[in-house]
Design goal:
The radius of gyration is 18 Å and the shape is globular. The strands form two sheets. Strands 1, 2, 3, 4, 5, 6, 9, 10 and 11 form a nine-stranded parallel beta sheet that branches. The two termini are 21 Å apart. It is built from 13 helices and eleven strands. The chain has helices at 13-16, 19-32, 46-56, 74-88, 101-107, 116-128, 146-155, 166-176, 194-205, 212-220, 234-240, 246-259, 278-288; strands at residues 7-10, 36-39, 61-64, 67-68, 92-97, 139-141, 158-159, 181-182, 185-189, 241-243, 264-268.
Length: 290
């Protein structure tokens, strides 16, 4: 199993920003000591982006956070994994997710999203049945609820939860067991002013509060209707976004580790959603990189 540890970077900019700048940033992030580069999948050439990051670096892991299973076939996914492993070594971790009905039905076709648990299991069956199967210990699921976490335990190396709290990390650890991987994403803002930090958090989270998967998971963690009103209560924003100085952000990462995380990938909030917050990555590296 790929045992990711340390701190990684989750970045839309590495996927959807300027390609040349992304290549340079990937090399610098590796030199700073970050242990993985995580990129999302909202359409476009995911496998081209993966190869670009692998080719720009020498040892850092590259991970999908996540590969959208409605946008790729199991065969092409397994083939790409095998090809990249042959060329770049054992550095790719495939995070797989079922995404969200409103997104898939709008991006692809109405009614395309259906039976998320069964569809995920079917996609994993396809990976297992490919000419060169994608090994179960080189894939994780974007699992939030108990049923998807159980599927992650049974069929993959573990879970990559997004928009979660340390309390959820503890639940995920219990669900996947001592041997599974727990690799949460954590949004962070290097901003000491509470009003500005929470405004950044609300701008980032507004879209996610319209997606039932995230809202239902947060309800399971104890948040209620009032927490989702007016862009999110301070309590909810503070739970999902670590803000303040470097030590404040490190403290949140430490809480995830104490709850059972093997690795935490940070998503730095900035004014440019697909930008590359190099200054913040550099500023955080001394306190987050072991």
């Amino acid at each position: 199993m790929v045992r990711l540890s340390g701190t990684g970077i989750w970045s839309g900019g590495l996927r959807y920003g300027d390609a040349g700048e992304a290549v340079e940033a990937a090399a610098e992030l590796e030199s700073l000591g970050y242990s993985a580069l995580w990129i999302p999948d909202a359409g476009g050439d995911l496998f081209g982006s993966i190869e670009q990051l692998l080719g720009a670096t020498t040892g850092i892991s590259v991970a999908t956070g996540i590969l959208n299973l409605w946008m790729h076939t199991p065969d092409e996914t397994a083939e790409a994994f095998a090809r990249f492993t042959d060329v770049y070594g054992d550095r790719l971790l495939v995070g797989i997710g079922v995404s969200h009905a409103p997104l898939i039905d709008s991006l692809l076709e109405p009614g395309r999203f259906r039976n998320p648990l069964a569809s995920t299991a079917q996609f994993l069956d396809g990976l297992d049945g490919a000419p060169r199967p994608l090994p179960s210990d080189r894939r994780v699921l974007a699992a939030l609820g108990p049923k998807m976490l159980e599927l992650a335990r049974l069929r993959t190396a573990g879970t990559h939860p997004y928009n979660v709290t340390p309390e959820h990390t503890a639940l995920a650890r219990e669900a996947v067991g001592a041997g599974g991987l727990v690799l949460p994403e954590q949004a962070v803002a290097l901003e000491r002013d509470p009003s500005r930090a929470r405004a950044m958090g609300r701008a980032h989270l507004l879209h996610y509060f319209s997606l039932p998967n995230y809202v239902n998971n947060l309800r399971r963690l104890g948040f209620v209707d009032g927490d989702f009103a007016d862009g999110g209560s301070d309590r909810l924003i503070d739970a999902l976004v670590a803000w303040g100085d470097e030590e404040s952000i490190r403290n949140r990462i430490d809480l995830h580790r104490a709850a059972g995380a093997d690795h935490v990938c940070i998503q730095v909030l900035s004014d440019a959603p697909v930008g590359l917050p190099l200054a913040e990555w550099r500023q955080l590296a001394p306190v987050l990189v072991a």
